[in-house]
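#data-curation
PF: Archiving a pair of folding outputs for the training set. Convention for this channel: one message per protein, sequence first, structure tokens after, nothing in between. First:
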Amino acid sequence: MGKVRQADIARVAGVSQATVSVVLGGNRTGVRLSERTRLRVLEAAEQLGYVPDPVSSRLAATRNNLLGVYTFTPAFPVDVADAYYPILAGVEAEAAALGKDLIMFTASSAAPDRIRRTRLADGCLFLGRHVPVDGIADLLAAGFPIVYIGRRTELGGRIPHVGADYVSASAEVITRLARAGHTRVRYLREPDDAPSSGDRERGVRAAAAAAGLSLVVVRTDGADLDGPSVRCWLDDGVTALVVEETDTGAVFHATWRALGEAGVSVPGDVSLAVLGRPPAGTAGPVISGFEVPRRALGRAAVRLLASLVEPGSGEPSLHRLLTCPPVAGETIATLA
């Protein structure tokens, strides 16, 4: 015999399928049923060898202790060098500490109908450079608990998030360069306008203005960076390059390659800093910059989501930024 359905139990017990559902679900809604009817349903279920679906049973409860994780990359990273790996490791560690299970939504599509699947869980974490506005708006309107990992400004700032304080950390790097005597700086960043990119540039511009630095912001995907470009900047008096860190590391890789093509030494001929950390496996001196507290971001995001799923006595802060510790590195030279 195939899998026993509630319809089969209803037929044997001589009751409606709705009655079977009520009995097997524990009658949480308080429907009036005779004890004789309840026992008849249970006896029929036992006779047929009915085994309840554990997923359906959990979803029928008010809470199922499942937290979702939805990312818009094609697949979850398995390489510890991947930028998302420590975030997901932090998510897993905190979920385990809180006694929660995780359900992974692996589709890279941002279509609202796919995002609605996250409601299988009690709440969901979102991770990605850009927000799928329509899908997230639907979840917020329905009162479904969500937390984005990374600061978000979309939807009027209504998206709960845990992010990194890129503004302060980026400003500190520029201030460090100014104290080392640098006055002409090129800042290289990717073309798109994700909040993390905008925050870094805000910090760079504010600190450069405060220190009186000559700053030029170059938006590039890295394809136009080469040895002659670097040589031209140095001939123009530039003494430091600052590079944005992104998921792909495209601009850093292109800058590092261009420095090699130009035969330029770091920090002997030019200083170099990255707003974050360089891609894993970068050879040479330790690059100056700052740490993004990725594991801590994952853990803090889980705690915030859990507080939204099961509200306590106080109102949680829906927008939190974590400090990025500076990395002194070896690539900022002090000028005479």
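PF: Second:
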Amino acid sequence: MRVLIVEDDPDLNRQLERALTDAGYAVDSATDGEDGHFLGDTEPYDAVVLDLGLPQIDGVTVLERWRNDGRDFPVLILTARDRWSEKVAGFDAGADDYLTKPFHTEELLARLRALTRRAAGHASSSIDCGQLSVDTRGARVFIEGAPVKLTSHEFRLISYMAHHQDRVISRSELVEHIYDQDFDRDSNTIEVFIGRLRKKIGSDRIETVRGLGYRLIDPDAKAA
């Protein structure tokens, strides 16, 4: 899952980038509204953390422009403690949730998990596909209750597929959602990660749809 942080405080920006990366996200960041708007307008994010008090272009204007252009990714806005009017303006502009500064990073991560799950149609913090379970809170994967040891990129891949299970996902879409902007993207490495995942979770759980991409399935349901 790929997230954009738009926050002008450099220390908070770095803190959030580290926390989200450690939680299994691919993370891009911007420190002003102009750069943030450009990234959100040109890259396919699964969620955005947006400060409203930004230089260049304020956060409300950035959000309004995204929504007017049809960008429907979930947006979590950050507001100052005493600026209740900012929250109202943010929601009116199309925000999905908000946090008031200062906040605990754990709460921001929990709200992000909830936003990305709901956007994909999942209610629980655990996303199941048959005997495979993705714990979005702990960034872990289980098969029949037993933990599966994965690298960070393998987890990003299986997490994105679990959020969108039973849908065919192209290699280019996977590249766009598991790598950050600065990563040397090569769609051929997706085949390598798919191969590794099949060895760890079972080859029959990831279906290849020739010419289109991959799909995460429940092999028991298919057999039935």
